[in-house]
Design a protein that fits this description.
Structural class: alpha+beta
Number of domains: 3
Distance between the termini: 71 Å
Shape: flat
Length: about 575
């Protein structure tokens, strides 16, 4: 009861705050639009490019000279070298590269967003406040061209800084790898006991490693070193054993870095027939209705939702001593020796997994280890991969697959068999925790796409800032956009605090009007304040390909639709605002 009271109170206070904000916004826009206006040029398009580019150049010059913009530019340029100096991760080369990318790209995005807010809000509003705009609006320059020039100037500066940041992130990632190789060469000479020429050949061989990884002496690292130096596998193994343990770990983690981070990988997910799931739920509903066993007090749609969840649970849950097979559709198998494909999964158990000892074989099963196995491939084929128990639960795991287990049309069959003696049911989130990854591009391409994804959100933010500067002063416009930016980034927390996420309510139980209002409010805020849906930081550190289709979709919805609408509203407000009308 207390929780419901808190949620209701939070809903009332947030609703009142939103209502006050909307009333103030309507009042401000109304005052901006009620004047007769004093525009000279109308909607003239002829010669627009000259005016827009001239205003853009002036805007960039003013921004660079501005103290606020200068501070953000300096901070942005210092972010990458500072994160390079302090990034340690889990003390391995892979962890350091991932930490460097996470903080350098994330902070660059954050500081660039703040710079965009201050820069886009400041330029026009300051000119209006200091009456510098008079010399421009009295000329035959349409006001839409003024706003377009301001926007182009803001985006040109932001795109330039993003390009510098992207190059810095790419160079920093490769420099970390280069530093490790320099350190390895020195240790091969001092600890490994080989000549400088041999050490150089061994280090150079690391750049030639291709294909999937393997454990121990079967690793492609050993093969590359052997081919480069002419030494036997045993000799290479003896040299590596004389190196410090941390260096040998970095060799293994560095190979994971090559295969899982410094690439662009697409994902094939289970092929789920949603229509078949809905049909199965409908069939069960019809049977319950025929038998007169429908739950009392629930609507038809609520019962169907419950039945769909039951069917979904059956295809995503592996019961004790049972197995479930999922089918994925990936690319046709590439028989090249450097083709890499891996199974990425996260297994959850519905109960705790305490340690267990097998008395018969004297083996101890550690906590969060489960006695289950994977079988990948068509069971009627000879090319079936078996991943034996035990497997790790509750954390994301990735295992590489030979390309032979993929059928000729790209079909991938994966089967999880649950043989754990603790009688626990296992489950996977089929939308996010089970996928087959395969390489589709390079790290360079992925960094470029990540920068473009950030620029799309910056484009939307710049449009909001230019729009706000047409009817608000600089402090008010900047503060408003910062607040909206923070709220947009915190929508997940807001949804949790208002108890509208699936963790806080039963979808099969009818909810009250206050809940529906809260959920509608969160949905509306999420749609209205969002400036992008791509997560370039997490995609880049996981080696996930962002790709042109996702970029085009995000550009269309956020840059063109949202950004264009904001600019159109700004033009309407600016055209009607009395600034310095020509009096004849």
């Amino acid at each position: 009861m207390a929780d419901n009271s808190v949620n209701t109170f939070s809903m009332i206070m947030i609703s009142i705050g939103l209502l006050i904000f909307l009333l103030i916004l309507v009042f401000v826009i109304r005052n901006a639009l009620k004047g007769k206006g004093g525009e000279v040029g109308g909607w003239t398009i002829r010669g627009a490019n000259h005016a827009i580019f001239a205003i853009a150049r002036t805007t960039i010059t003013e921004g660079v000279r501005s103290k606020v913009a200068t501070v953000f530019i300096i901070v942005l340029l210092l972010t990458i070298p500072l994160t390079y100096a302090i990034a340690t991760g889990d003390s391995t080369i892979k962890g350091r590269v991932q930490m460097f990318i996470y903080w350098s790209l994330g902070l660059s995005w954050f500081f660039l967003s703040l710079l965009t807010i201050f820069f886009s809000c400041r330029s026009l509003s300051r000119e209006i406040e200091q009456r510098q705009i008079f010399g421009l609006v009295t000329k035959p320059v349409p006001r839409w061209q003024i706003l377009a020039g301001k926007w182009v100037g803001v985006m040109t500066l932001c795109a330039s800084l993003m390009a510098i940041a992207g190059v810095g992130i790419y160079a920093g990632s490769l420099t970390i790898v280069s530093d490790f190789r320099t350190k390895l060469r020195h240790q091969l000479e001092t600890d490994g006991g080989i000549t400088p020429d041999q050490a150089g050949l061994v280090v150079a061989a690391l750049g030639e490693v291709r294909g999937p990884g393997a454990a121990g002496m079967q690793s492609p690292i050993i093969t590359a070193m052997q081919e480069a130096t002419g030494m036997s596998r045993t000799q290479i193994g003896d040299v590596l054993l004389r190196l410090p343990e941390s260096t040998r770990v970095d060799l293994r983690r560095g190979d994971e870095l090559r295969r899982q981070v410094l690439v662009a990988r697409a994902a094939a997910k289970p092929d789920l027939d949603l229509d078949a799931i809905a049909a199965s739920a409908q069939k069960k509903y019809d049977q319950l209705e025929k038998d007169g066993r429908l739950p009392v007090g629930l609507r038809r749609d609520q019962v169907l939702e419950s039945l769909r969840a039951e069917v979904w649970g059956n295809i995503s849950t592996v019961h004790p001593f049972g197995d479930v097979t999922w089918i994925m559709k990936g690319p046709k198998p590439d028989k090249r020796g450097d083709a890499i494909m891996s199974l990425r999964y996260k297994i959850e158990s519905q109960t705790a997994l305490p340690p267990l000892r097998f008395a018969q074989i004297g083996m101890r099963l550690e906590e969060d280890k489960i006695w289950c196995s994977w079988r990948i491939g068509n069971p009627e084929s000879a090319d079936v991969v078996f991943i034996p128990p035990p497997l790790q639960a509750r954390t994301i795991q990735e295992i590489e697959l030979p390309i032979e287990c993929v059928e000729s049309d790209g079909t991938i069959r994966v089967t999880l068999r649950n043989e754990d003696p603790r009688n626990v049911a296992l489950s996977l989130d089929l939308m996010s925790d089970l996928e087959v990854m395969y390489v589709v591009g390079s790290f360079e391409t992925n960094v470029f796409h990540a920068c473009l994804a950030i620029l799309i959100s910056i484009t939307c933010l710049a449009s909001f800032g230019v729009c706000a500067s047409t009817f608000l002063t600089f402090p008010v416009a900047a503060l408003t956009l910062i607040c909206l930016y923070i709220i947009s980034a915190s929508m997940g927390f807001i949804a949790d605090s208002l108890a509208v996420t699936p963790d806080y309510y039963d979808p099969n139980v009818k909810q009250g009007l206050d809940f529906e209002f809260r959920r509608a409010m969160v949905t509306g805020l999420t749609w209205g304040l969002s400036i992008g849906e791509i997560s370039p930081v997490s995609d880049l550190i996981d080696g996930r390909a962002i790709g042109w289709p996702r970029l085009f979709d995000s550009f269309w919805r956020f840059a063109l639709v949202k950004g264009g609408l904001a600019m159109f509203i700004g033009v309407l407000a600016f055209r009607r605002r009395e600034l310095a009308a020509v009096i004849v």
